[in-house]
Each structure stands twice: as C-alpha cells, then as structure tokens.
C-alpha cells in the first residue's frame, strides 16, 4: 500500500532477509512495478531489491568479489545512461570478524566507485551504508566514536568518497539540518526520543547534483529500524536511449 501511495519511479530496498521463492506475488511483482532481487546464499539474511516502473535495459547482481556477492549486497539497474544501485554495506557491530569483513568491503568497493566516476554514466547509489559520516549525522557522537558505524577509519572512507572520488551526498545538497536520522536502535526509547543515526544515503555522481530537487525521511509509519529516504530528481527515465 505504501509503495503505491508514493508513486515513485524507483524504490530500492535493503536487508530483505528472504529468498525470491519465499516472496508473495504482491511483493514479487507489485502493481505497476517490475521487481528485481538479489538474495544472500544464507537464508533469512541480507539481500537487496529494486522496484521500477520502467523495465531496465540491464540488471547486474554482482559487485565483483565472492564475499559480497554471496551475501546479496548489490543490485544495479541500467536505464540508458543512468544506473541505479541498491546497496547494503556490511555492519560490523556484531563482532570483530564482521568489522574486518566491513573494512575489506570498503577497501574493495572504493576502486569500484572510482571506476564509476570514470564512466560516461550517471549513478544513484541508494542504500544502507552503515556509516554515519559526520557529527551532525548521529545523536550521540561522543559516545559512539569507538563503535562500528562511527569509527574514524569509516568516516575517513566517507571523506574520500565525497572529496577525493567526488561523489555527492544527495540529501545534504537540499537539507543541511541536524537530527535528520534514518536509523534508530530498537532498544529503549531511541525512536521516540529521536536518538538516531543517518546511515542511509543516496550517493550520486556530480552530474546529477543540479537535478536534486527535494529530500525527505518518511516517519509517518515505522516499518523497521530504518526509515525510507525519499529524494526527488528532475530526471526522466530513458530506456535504450528513448
């Protein structure tokens, strides 16, 4: 119902935690949408998806290394000279081993991002990046400096993404306000008190910077520990150059 009300051209989802064969028909193929999914090998874990009104020219479900591909963390839909990606970056909060996997993902993903910048395409990378970039992006920054998601190394990686690589944090182009969070712990009263983190981003190539019109975080209903990040672009979806 929410999907139909939004009237969005494209919706990217992360942490689906389901195999395609487990999905009900209305989730697999919602009315007026094409649905594409990339599952994790491990059942009930990770997974990403894309819903789109127009059928893409091409779908890519491999990021390029086994660890990430087995966990269903990447899905790309190509429309002429625009690519939209649903991304679920690993969390490192559960153990040192998972944090090491997260750092490995970051080091492998950076060259992929640099390659995107060199291509004659525009990219919108939507998803759960599991990193709060700056102090403004997290309520309790002082108490989280040694926690996964706000580690100095992770934040420096985001610095490189937006400065050295030249990608753009689409939300911050139109909203520089504090307390604009997209994730809240299920513990305590985090949601009610807005003790949150901004870890969901739409990262875009600089050619789209002037196409960003407005952004919002949908909090009228709570679907999970994340809230949908909605961004409007002054773009028309082209298929095969049409």
Describe this structure as you would to a colleague.
This protein is an alpha+beta fold. Helices cover 22% and strands 25% of the residues. The strands form 4 sheets. The protein has a 6-stranded mixed sheet. Strands 1-3-2 form a 3-stranded antiparallel sheet, with no helix packed on it. β6, α4 and β7 form a beta-alpha-beta unit. The model has no long low-confidence stretch (mean pLDDT 96).
The CATH architecture term is 4-Layer Sandwich
Q: Low-confidence runs (pLDDT<50, min 5 residues)?
A: none
- What share of the residues lie within helices? 10-25%
The structure class reads alpha+beta
- CATH T-level topology: Deoxyribonuclease I, Chain A
The overall average pLDDT, rounded, is 96
H/E element order? HEHEEEHEEHEHEHEEEEE
Just give the CATH class: Alpha Beta
Mind describing the biggest β-sheet?
A: 6 strands, mixed
List the helices and strands and how they pair.
Layout: H1 2-6, E1 10-14, H2 25-28, E2 34-38, E3 48-52, E4 58-60, H3 66-70, E5 74-79, E6 82-88, H4 96-118, E7 122-128, H5 152-162, E8 168-169, H6 170-174, E9 183-184, E10 196-197, E11 200-204, E12 212-217, E13 229-233
Parallel strand pairs: 6-7
Antiparallel strand pairs: 1-3, 2-3, 4-5, 5-6, 7-11, 8-11, 9-10, 12-13
């Amino acid at each position: 119902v929410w999907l139909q009300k939004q009237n969005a051209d494209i919706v990217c989802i992360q942490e689906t935690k389901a195999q395609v064969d487990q999905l009900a028909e209305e989730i697999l193929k919602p009315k007026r949408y094409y649905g594409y999914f990339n599952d994790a090998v491990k059942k009930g874990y990770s997974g990403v998806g894309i819903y789109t009104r127009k059928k893409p020219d091409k779908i890519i479900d491999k990021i390029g290394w086994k660890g990430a591909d087995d966990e269903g963390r990447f899905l790309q839909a190509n429309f002429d000279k625009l690519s939209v990606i649903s991304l679920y970056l690993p969390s490192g909060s559960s153990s040192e081993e998972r944090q090491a996997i997260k750092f490995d993902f970051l080091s492998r993903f950076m060259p992929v991002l640099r390659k995107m910048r060199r291509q004659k395409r525009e990219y919108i990378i939507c998803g759960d990046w599991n990193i709060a970039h700056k102090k403004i992006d997290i309520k309790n920054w002082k108490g989280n400096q040694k926690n996964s998601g706000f580690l100095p190394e992770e934040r420096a990686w985001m610095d490189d993404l937006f400065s050295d690589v030249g990608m753009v944090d689409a939300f911050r182009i139109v909203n520089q306000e504090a307390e604009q969070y997209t994730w809240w712990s299920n513990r305590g009263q985090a949601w009610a008190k807005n003790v949150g983190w901004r870890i969901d981003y739409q990262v875009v190539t600089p050619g789209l910077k002037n196409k960003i019109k407005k952004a919002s975080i949908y909090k009228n209903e709570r679907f999970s520990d994340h809230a949908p990040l909605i961004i409007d672009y002054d773009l028309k979806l082209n298929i095969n150059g049409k």
